[in-house]
Amino acid sequence: MDLQNLTHYFIQYGAFFIYLIVLLEYLNLPGFPAGVIMPLSGIWAAQGEISFPLVMLLTVAAGLTGSWLLYLLGRFGGNKILGFYFKKFPKHKPIIEKKMEYLRRKGCIGVFISKLFPMVRTLISIPAGMVKMDIARYTLSSICGIFVWNLIFVGAGYFFGDAAINFLQGGL
User: Fold this and answer.
1) For the chain, how far is it from start to end, CA to CA, in angstroms?
2) 75 close to 130: Cβ distance less than 8 angstroms
3) DSSP H helical segments within 47-134, as ranges?
4) Would you call 33 helix, strand, or coil by DSSP?
5) Burial class (CB in 10 A: 0-12, 13-18, 19+), 45
6) HSE-CB for 123 with a 13 A CA cutoff
């Protein structure tokens, strides 16, 4: 998938395209990586195709929706999933239990910090649900972490996108 095809999808489906792709990424489902679509949406904002605040709202809402769904999965099915996982990978049990204890102790700070690291930022929602973290506190710390992460990627596209496009078009 190249820049031209992604732009075509954006033109065809509009802002919903951004929301859907970022949601899929926050659910750890196959699709376009948000590390591509978020900077691209920043480029579209810089070019006047969509407003920057709307892009941020859409990406944060998509991230939060995905985080809530994984939190609920952890809250209501996490122990079964973890039991199945431990049967397949018993050596991981002490490591995961240590991480769960860290989350119990650190709570919101742990969620916020985790939202700033690739891969962990999406997966932290399941253990947060499993330890039955307060949903309001979980939501607040998730929004803050998601906002910072998305702002870096959307902002990079907004501020540096033209240079990247010129490089790709001229340099390759």
Assistant:
1) 16
2) yes
3) 52-88, 93-106, 108-114, 120-123, 125-130
4) coil
5) buried
6) 8
| Residue 164's pLDDT band (cuts 50, 70, 90) | low
Q: What percent of the chain has pLDDT over 90?
A: 36
Residues 6+ apart with CB under 8 A from 83: none
pTM: 0.82
Tokens coding 166: 């010129």
Check if the beta carbon of residue 165 is closer than 8 Å to that of residue 116. no
Structural tokens at position 99: 């991480």
Instruction: Give residue 82's identity as a one-letter amino acid code.
Output: L
Amino acid 47 reads Q
Residue 139 tokens read as 């939501």
Tokens 């803050």 sit at which residue? 144
For tokens 């999965």, the residue is: 73
Distance between CA atoms of residues 167 and 37, nearest Å: 18
Confidence (pLDDT) at 78: 85
Question: Tell me, what's the pLDDT at 17?
Answer: 83
Q: At residue 74, what is the residue type?
A: G
Which residues have C-beta within 8 Å of that of residue 29, sequence separation ≥ 6? Answer: none
Comparing CA positions, the residue from 137, 150, 144 lying closest to residue 18 is 150
The Cβ of residue 56 has, within 10 Å, a number of other Cβ atoms equal to 20
